[in-house]
């Protein structure tokens, strides 16, 4: 999974945080694929949970300050992601051999990779356009 310039929303702080999320997500996917230890995988999921909360809070504060009318819907999308991360943590807590399970890999891809790319491209970019149009 690679962050590309077409995913830029045009707000450097948000784009920088998105790049960091991609880096950490890639670390998680690699750890799962390479059967790394449970502690490393669980620690990466914990980081993603905490970082997403930090990022979402900052994003929502920027939207509120800008008077963005899509804020309520955006919060719903963020809540969905946080629920997905919670589900991933629960699945990761299940007993497994070494660090890998096919189900964990599929779940991680569906609820992290697919969600974040879709969210950035369809939801976050709307806010970027809103900010750009106000300048």
3D architecture notes:
The chain has four helices and no strands. The chain has helices at residues 12-33, 38-66, 71-92, 102-134. The mean pLDDT is 85. Helix 1 runs antiparallel to helix 2 (38-66) and helix 3 (71-92) runs antiparallel to helix 4 (102-134).
Features:
135 residues, 4 helices, elongated
Provide a short characterization of the protein structure:
The chain contains 4 helices and no strands. The protein is mainly alpha-helical and 135 residues long. The relative contact order is 0.18.
Note the total helix count. Answer: 4
SSE class: mainly alpha
Per DSSP E runs of 2 or more residues, the count of β-strands stands at: 0
Q: Rounded to an integer, what's the Rg over CA atoms?
A: 16 Å
- At CATH level 3, the topology is Four Helix Bundle (Hemerythrin (Met), subunit A)
CATH-defined architecture: Up-down Bundle
Oligomer description = single chain
Beta content:
under 5%
**Stretches with pLDDT under 50, minimum 5 residues:** none
CATH superfamily: Hemerythrin-like
Intertermini distance:
32 Å
User: Total domains, how many?
Assistant: 1
Please summarize the sheet with the most strands: none
Average pLDDT taken over every residue: 85
In which range does the helix fraction lie? over 70%
Q: SSE order in H/E notation?
A: HHHH
CATH class group: Mainly Alpha
Give the overall form: elongated
């Amino acid at each position: 999974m690679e962050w590309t310039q077409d995913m830029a929303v045009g707000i450097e702080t948000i784009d920088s945080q998105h790049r960091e999320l991609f880096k950490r997500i890639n670390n998680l996917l690699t750890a799962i694929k390479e059967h790394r230890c449970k502690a490393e995988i669980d620690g990466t999921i914990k980081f993603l949970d905490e970082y997403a909360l930090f990022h979402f809070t900052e994003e929502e504060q920027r939207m509120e300050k800008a008077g963005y009318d899509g804020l309520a819907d955006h919060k719903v999308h963020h809540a969905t992601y946080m629920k997905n991360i919670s589900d991933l943590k629960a699945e990761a807590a299940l007993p497994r051999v070494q660090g890998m399970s096919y189900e964990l890999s599929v779940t991680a891809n569906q609820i992290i990779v697919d969600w974040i790319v879709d969210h950035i491209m369809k939801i976050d970019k709307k806010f970027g356009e809103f900010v750009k149009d106000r300048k």
